[in-house]
Amino acid sequence: MSSSPRTENRAVALRDPSGSVLQRREPTSKGQPRRDALQRAGMRRLGIDHGDKRVGLALSDEDGVFAQPFDTLDRKGLDALVIRIAEIVEERGVEEIVVGLPLHLDGREGASARRARRFSERVAERTGKPVVLWDERMSSMAAERALREGGLDGKAQRGKVDRVAASLLLQSYLDSRRGRQDAWDARSADDADDEDSPER
Known about the structure:
The protein is α/β, with parallel strands linked by helices. The protein has a single domain (40-187), classed as Nucleotidyltransferase, domain 5 (2-Layer Sandwich), CATH 3.30.420. 44% of the residues lie in helices and 16% in strands. It is built from six helices and five strands; from the N terminus they run αβββαβαβααα. It has a five-stranded mixed beta sheet with strand order 3-2-1-4-5, sandwiched between helices. A hairpin with a 6-residue loop joins β2 (54-60) and β3 (67-74). α2 (78-92) packs across α3 and α4 packs across α6. It is globular. 34% of the residues are buried.
């Protein structure tokens, strides 16, 4: 009996961690994002922590550097939820959406991950914006710990933990993109130095 494939905590262009494209874009060599995709780091992004009862939202700044908790939505039906998210995308000028992919600790996908994929497809269809699935295994636990350390008990955490988890998820994605951009810039600088070097 074969097990589900393991996934990596990375998003390449508009692909999820397993490589499935949610919104088609020009393919890249060796699975690397195109340079212009990386250079568009300065855009507002929406992070979504998708749950069965509540959905946490986070927004980045316009430069796409910092993520902040934004709101928590009660899930009262998929259609109403997707419509509300589309409204927020329009109101806030969101250009890219990052949805948490709940994986088992060993990297396998279960029922929650399949629901997140279906939800992401609906959001992509409704908004017309690129959607990226991002590993959220540690974001909820980190959010609960941060709220506990802030003096909030379990009852007070309810509603807040979801949007805090969304902000941690989104910040992880933003930091990863910035790291790839730095690596690209360094490689481009090395290539330029090689071109300027005299031939021996």
